[in-house]
Design brief:
By secondary structure, the chain is an alpha+beta fold. Helix content is 20%, strand content 34%.
């Protein structure tokens, strides 16, 4: 019998390994528009609302930077802004800082793509209203990589002042390089309980809870059989899946146990790894 995650499941904060904490903090404050929630030693928490972290940076010793798209790990994490005007303001600020920008109109959303100083991929995006999302004959969302109308997005922010990311900003999704797509599908869909929302060719799969267009992207664009990322390489440390209550968390843990997946208790979360070695924290709201 198919399993499904509670529809209020969301992605929580993302933790990154970086080579130079001060350089990264400066980038996430001034270029991305987050504030420092707390900083101690080699770790800094960045926030939009002053209450909870969205991005946590951890400087690791002897950090190495591997070429992009050569291992399993982070493809990008995605910062979701609540309105289109904030996407326009973010675009203004990126241009002001002379950041190299990629962009796409995905039909369900409009997105900007950049890299942080360590090459970690970041998407900044806004969703179109859910009633505008269309499905194909298989019931999957219709998404595209059409050109973004930069001028129209910028026009949304005309006359407005950049003050950083709004308090309602959150992590909308995480997109991962995986070693093999079918084991990833079994883990994220059959065990965790995400639903498939779209295929992108034969090498990428999108999954979500609650009918969202995607909370996770899974792809083999780094190569089928891509190796796990070295521990001393900059990149994704882990990301959090936030469940609505303890009962839902217990259901997920039981499914993982039945599937032979070990979960380790760490602070206020349970940590597991997907078949490609990507670390996930399971926590309750």
């Amino acid at each position: 019998m198919p399993v499904s995650l509670h529809p209020r499941t969301e992605i929580g904060h993302v933790r990154l390994k970086v080579s130079d904490l001060e350089q990264s903090v400066d980038f996430y404050r001034n270029v991305i528009g987050l504030d420092v929630l707390r900083q101690e030693g080699k770790t800094a928490e960045l926030t939009a609302d002053g209450k909870k972290p969205l991005v946590v940076l951890r400087q690791i010793p002897d950090a190495i930077r591997l070429p992009q798209g050569t291992t399993a790990g982070l493809y990008h994490f995605a910062i979701l802004v609540p309105e289109r005007k904030y996407l326009g303001l973010a675009l203004q600020n990126l241009i002001r800082h002379r950041i190299r920008i990629g962009a796409s109109d995905h039909l369900v959303s409009e997105a900007l793509y950049i890299d942080d100083p360590d090459g970690n991929g970041i998407e900044i995006y806004r969703d179109r209203p859910r009633e505008e999302w269309k499905r194909d004959g298989r019931g999957e969302y219709v998404m595209a990589v059409d050109p973004l109308d930069f001028e129209d997005v910028l026009a949304e922010a005309e006359g407005l002042a950049w003050t950083g990311m709004p308090a309602e900003t959150k992590i909308g999704h995480v997109h991962l390089h995986v070693s093999h797509l079918e084991p990833a599908r079994k883990f994220y869909v059959d065990l965790l309980g995400f639903g498939i929302t779209a295929h992108y060719g034969i090498r990428a799969l999108f999954v979500s809870a609650g009918g969202y267009h995607h909370h996770l992207g899974l792809n083999t664009w780094a190569g089928v059989g891509a190796p796990r990322r070295a521990e001393n390489a900059v990149g994704l440390l882990d990301y959090t899946i936030v469940l609505p209550d303890a009962g839902e968390l217990e259901n997920v843990l039981q499914r993982l146990h039945a599937g032979g997946i070990a979960a380790e208790r760490q602070e206020q979360a349970w940590v597991v790894r997907d078949p490609s070695g990507n670390a996930i924290r399971l926590a309750v709201l």
